[in-house]
Design brief:
The chain is an all-alpha fold. It has helices at 2-17, 24-34, 38-55, 59-80, 85-106, 109-113, 117-129, 136-153. Helix 3 (38-55) crosses helix 7 (117-129) and helix 5 (85-106) packs across helix 8.
Amino acid sequence: MAGKILAIKEQVNASLHDTNKPWTKCFEEAEKKSGVDRLYIFVGLIGIVGAWLVFGFAAQLVCNFVGFIYPAYASMKALESKNKDDDTKWLTYWVVFACFSVVEFFSDFIVGWFPLYWLIKCLFLFWMMIPIESSGSAVIYSNILQPYVVSKIN
């Protein structure tokens, strides 16, 4: 377990130092001004957002911001690249996101009774957009949506 946590820490740290990522300059500037390592700044931000999603005002707005901003940026970047794989990844994300949004609309009464809903939804959205081959959007699409749609077409 400790090895897995260390591996995740190294991946996050590498991503925070990757000059191709849009957030690198922000974390670099915050690190210079505060004197705190950018990994700890990132963990602190995750803690603040997590607490906000549980206790804060406008948690739905914060959660939707997380679910839209980076995926929209990555989708536009994918459209401009020559690589087709990134287009497929983000198109899959948006298809699963749309299906989830429709289901969520009809289960809106759950939100009022479940205080951790926005935090769990935000974690779900992170899982869907994580940059690995078996991201949540790929898993949900290939195991649930694709078989269902294919069975209805044939």
